[in-house]
Amino acid sequence: MSEFHFIRPMWLIALLALPLIIWLVKRLQVNHSGWSNILPPHLAARMMEQGGPTKGLSVVPVSLIFILATIALAGPTWQKLPQPVYQVERGSVIVMDMSYSMYATDLAPNRLTRARFKAVDLLDNLNEGDIGLVAYAGDAFVISPLTQDINNIKLLLPSLSPELMPALGSNPLAALDLAQQMLANAGHVEGDIYWFTDGIDQEDIKDLNDWSAQYPHTVNILGIGTRAGAPIKLPNGELMKDDRGAIVVPKLSDQFLYGVASKSSGEYQTIRSDSYDIDALISNAKRVQDKDSTDSDELVESEQNLGDQWQEAGPYLLVVVLLLLLPYFRRGLLLGVLPALLLLTPSEQAMAIDWQSLWQTKDQQGQKAFNQQEFEQAANTFNDPMWKGSSLYKAGNYQAAAEAFGKLESAQGYYNQGNALAKMQQFDEAIKAYEQALALSPEHSDAQANKTLIEQLKNQQENQQQNQQSSDQNQDNQQDGQQENQQQQNDQRGQGSQGDESQSQQDQQSDASQNDEQQSNDQQNSSQQNSQNDQQNSSDSSSQPPEQQGQDAAQNKESQDNAVSDQQQEESAENAQQQAQAATAGDQPVDQEQAQKHQQLLKKVTDDPYLLLRNKMQLEYQKRRQEGSNNGVKKKW
């Protein structure tokens, strides 16, 4: 009850009319009957006294009703609502210094490696809100747009190195400007910037202080390195030298960084081996966020945009007022209404639903369902097109989400519409949506990056389709050739079937000639053996009777016939095997060859995140050079 106050205290001025109300009630008590206006006063008083005491308006109930109604209209309250509507979670951007001084070896193994580890620790401790990643050297680039998927950022961190950056040097002002654009495009009026760097030039201090005074973001800085410094050891093992040939020894300028952080209510910490530095940065960000949430200006803005933040007790007083008014409408009505009210008392669940509809708007109910990841229910509840589209996008209904985002006709709406269309692989429509977003906000870096990526995917898809069509055409040509060869074979077989007798005779002659050749070869091969056995055979034949010689001749002839038939069977088996192989080759599915070609195409697609990031930043850097956009003071390392 310590926070008791009235939401609309101006209504209490109406209590000044209470004396007038009392005077009117007393006047009505005198002139409560219509006969007093007709009869003379002396007769009316005489007759009214004879009629006994009359019943009219009482001063006490009427005064009580007026007081309670006025207090109810003033809005008494002492309890806050649990959450505001439309309050967007605080966004965070990690800014990584990728100048060559990050290769200094005053921290083992070097500053860059230690900075990566600290960035991972920071991501593990940032449990809520959108997080983005920016890297800078001579110019700044978006490595990852604002997202709640910290694992994606963790996968990109190992790819960051000074060799990845298109421009050498150090331009921290460009990095902070890019981080501010990311937060503004995502709808974050205030955000947290975690800056990992090993120092700045003295010439940059004024620009950085002006930037802190212009934007309300909190810059928390983690200094990477030591005051003593160390040489810069390049990946090839050489030490970096300046123009005069002297070895460069970058030192940590922590006093400059501390001043820049304090200008934006931020925290500065020098890198440590434990987790104290990261915990201090996050604690400061939460402390600033809690301070901003209690600011009166933010409270007024939230009341205008988000609805009441205080739970009113006025409706309870109105119930009492209605009960006091019932006797004045009809006699005995109060006794009949009370049992009906007892019978119509709602259940606990129905009371909760009615209470939610009574005290929360549709957008408030949708925000609650969205926070509970009930995206379909949130989409059906929201009236705001942006939140409705976000709920549909989270629910996987990309078509409806694109339609909802298109109703906004704003840069952020067209950007979200392009993302939904890209999810459905409608690349042409997505590119048009990104172009509309860039037309309304040319500095929308996320829309430009997504547009470039979708164009690359579209070209890649078209190339794959062309390769697929060419491969299908080649396969059709191969199939046509196989069909022609098969037709020729069938024609030859048809011609062979017409001349079966001649062909069979030719086959027999060819077989006989082959057998003769084989026999001659066999005879030549066994000539020596036959010559050795001639005498014995002649003696045996001369000694054998004529019947035995006839049987031997018949056996020799039969063995020759068997040899010829075996050779014919072998040739027919070989021909059948060749025909089967040809048929199998002709009937092989084309899927295997097509799968091989697809595999070769997939091998040509670049999936190296380092190469993809380098190409993306190189294109963006060339575009910036053409536009002539360049801010801040640069150094060579």
From TrEMBL:
Segments of skewed composition (Polar residues): 553-566
Comp. bias regions, Low complexity: 459-552, 574-585
Transmembrane segments: 6-25, 56-78
Keyword Membrane: yes
Domain VWFA residues, every copy: 91-285
Pfam families associated with the record: TPR_1, VWA_2
Annotated region (Disordered), positions in chain: 459-610
Annotated TPR repeat ranges: 411-444
This protein's UniProt keywords: Membrane, TPR repeat, Transmembrane, Transmembrane helix
Gene3D superfamilies linked: Tetratricopeptide repeat domain (1.25.40.10), von Willebrand factor, type A domain (3.40.50.410)
Signal peptide extent: none
Protein's UniProt name: VWA domain-containing protein
Organism: Thalassotalea euphylliae
Phylogenetic lineage: Bacteria, Pseudomonadati, Pseudomonadota, Gammaproteobacteria, Alteromonadales
